[in-house]
Structure formats: C-alpha cells, structure tokens
Amino acid sequence: MKTRFFYLLAILVTATSCRSIKPLFNAADPAPLKKKDNRSTNNTIAKPSQQGSKRIYKDGQRSPETAGIMEIRHPNLTYTGDTENSHRLQFKYAIPVDVPVEALTNLPFLQYMDNWYGVPYRYGGSGRDGIDCSAFSSGLLISVFGITIPRTVKEQYQDSRRINNKSDLQEGDLVFFNTSGGISHVGVYLINSKFVHASTTNGVTINDLNEEYYKRKYIGAGRVIDR
Questions:
Q1: Which of 15, 175, 184, 197 has the fewest CB atoms lying closer than 10 Å?
Q2: 121, HSE (Cβ side, Cα atoms, 13 Å)
Q3: 185 among known catalytic residues
Q4: Contact 188, 176 (CB under 8 A)
Q5: pLDDT digits (tens, 9 = 90+) for 70-98
Q6: What does the buried/exposed string (b/e) look like for 100-121 if buried means 16 or more CB atoms within 10 Å of the residue's CB?
Q7: Which residues lie closer than 8 Å to 178 by C-beta, 6 or more apart?
Q8: Which candidate, 171, 179, 138, 170, places its Cα nearest to that of 155?
Q9: Is the pTM of this model over 0.85?
C-alpha cells in the first residue's frame, strides 16, 4: 500500500515540474522559426515606375501630337496645323525650303521629289541606281506637269523661254548653271529660291540659288510651262 502511495506521489511531482520548465536553446540547436509575415509573401520584384518616361496629362487629354496637331518650330517659321488635313510631305519639306506648310500646295511635285530624293548622281543615268540632272528635270516635268522637254541640258535651255529676274521664278521653272564649262547643269525651281536637282555630290537634293557656289555658277532660268 505504501509503495503504491509513493508511486502516485512521484507522478504528481513530475507533472507539476514539467509545467514550470521553459525551453532552452544552445548554440547547437536550430534557431526558432519566426511567424511568416503575410506582407512579404509576394515574391514579385517591384519594377521602377515608368511615369517619368511618359507625358502625363491631368485632364486625361491626349498630347498635341497624338491628337493630330503638329507644331513646327524654326528660326523663321512657326506653324501649327491639323495633320489630318495636311499631307505629310508638306510638313516634311516645309523646313528645308523655309516656308509655311500651307505654301506647299503641289502634292504631285512633292511626291515625285520625295520618291527620288537621295538617289545618287550618275552621268547618263535615268534610273534609281543613278540619275543625271537633265534626266531628273525632264522626268519631273512630264510626271508632274505633263510637259515633255528634251533630254540634254543644252536642249532644255534652248527650248525654254528666258526669265530675266530671279524674283519672277515660279514652281516648275528650269534653272541653269555653268558647273563644267558652258550650260552644264539644270535644276527645277521649287519655291523661296530653292530648287531640286540631281547633284553630282549629294544626288537628288534641294539647294538654294543664293548659296555661294550656285550663285556664282548661275547662268539663267527658263520656262516651258504655259501660265
């Protein structure tokens, strides 16, 4: 009976002691696990904001460019127009010839010039691999104005009516130069002292009659279009 009593007493003492014991960790034990923070469960790395690379408009309106409005700024030109009603070539060539966009009204002329712009010069050539000045001028006049003119520079000069004053030049007039002895180069007048031609150095391009080189080489102008 006594043995059974002491046995029960030992069990009671052991149970009471276990409730008071705290867990102990030494250097060899693994660190206790921390409760996972739900705010850090997303493993996606946040990308930097792209707001700085975009134009943000508080009123939600589109920018002038996307709204169909284009503004061209130039030392001698400021023009704002509706791109939906103006041809892209008018905007493209307004600055090189230094005129308001609406001054360029002959779209077939601009289209022909644009199609050939930058094609290299080749003496006797008449294709996209190379073209000379008189082939370009004759091709432009027949394509844009429906006027057939001779193939060579000298013949074009002879078959055109003289224009004595540069101030009287009009779109489509021929301008002639002495670049290699006699009448040796021709271009087609565009506007504002500018002319388009097949240059030996730059191919089909636009230049100004008042540039020092062309001013010195200028011989005269001729007109083959009835006005």
A1: 15
A2: 17
A3: yes
A4: no
A5: 333 333 333 344 444 468 999 999 999 99
A6: ebeebebeebbebbeebeebbb
A7: 184, 185, 217, 219
A8: 138
A9: no
